[in-house]
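Bug #77: duplicate submission created two jobs. Keeping one. Sequence:
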Amino acid sequence: MDHNIPKRRVIKQNPLLPQGVEIIVPPPSFEACTFVEKLSVYATSLIIVGSPFWFYGGIIWLYRKWKQYRLLAAQCNRKSTDESVEEEELRTEHYRRYKQLAKRCGAILTTLVLLSILGPHRNTKLGSALKVRKWRLWDAWLNYVGFSVVKDHGKTSYETIHPEFDMKTSPAMFAFIPHGIFPFGLAFSCLPERGYQSTWGPFRPVVATATKLFPFVRTFISWMGGIDASRNAVSEALSTHPQRIGISPGGIAEMFETFPKPGFHPNDEAALLKDRTGMFKLALQHKLPVVPVYVFGATKMFRRVQLPHFIESLSRMFKISICLFFGKLGLPVPFRQRLMYVIGKTIFPPLADGEDFSMLESGELNQRAQDMHDTFCEEIIRIFDRNKEHYGWANKTLRIV
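Kept job's structure:
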């Protein structure tokens, strides 16, 4: 028997889905998210998503209190020439009290700043010890967003599978489109064990440097072995085992490429991919396949207020998300929007067996990367158009920008 013949797997067809679409993780019922789970989602969203507001606000408040108590202590330490014994005792008592309060505020402030900068708690071993991926909190979140996953094999009733490729364990780059105002799509695909166990397997997320501004987000990312979005950092990570990463190619800039930006309609969805070939050059360099995943609903978790164009330019320049957004009741609590992940056909690098990436000339490398890029864009549009109707977005259009 020839073991090199690609395997063929028969797909169980659901009559309510397009031909060739297979349900991997069915959506939970709307009632699956209990009242207590909703409260836990609201609370953790305020803590995690809202962390830049209350954390840095708290730092500023502590600093101002520290200065205030030091000033009061200094004033109480000044002895008046005509004060009585009772007044001197009262002044001394106030001095000691304010000095003690200044010390407490200073100690708390110093501790928070050092923890934020040094982060000894941001250790992957600590995350494993705490079993963070198995927390019941994530079940509440996945029920809240109606987490589901389907795989679109195409219009054929079977799929030709590369015998050497296993989506759950093989080296690969998983590309999640779109980014969204907050990258819930990428987060739920790699943090909860329930999110990846029966779908694509564990991987390391690639995140923007701006995530360091979110104290709790930064901690969770570190526990998952997060990688900075710089080309050198990603390339270095792909040079070591297990060579499995997840990325949102559009990045922070993609959040600005939707309504209410001028030129966009409320029914437009956008993928910032037109000039982004760097991911595919890395795929060629490390001989890794790219798995396209479109996350329906990722752009509707929050709503964005359109700010002047120069704010967008500043965001891109400094690689931080200067964005005014809101959720339920105007708070950083996401709207309850169902997230449906659609896995497309895996795109393998156009390299012959034994062909060395380093031997390719610059023009040839760019052309092959462009070919992978074009195939990827076509596949993202294909899975969007074929699955938007059963998601409930029949009138939506995906624009590659």
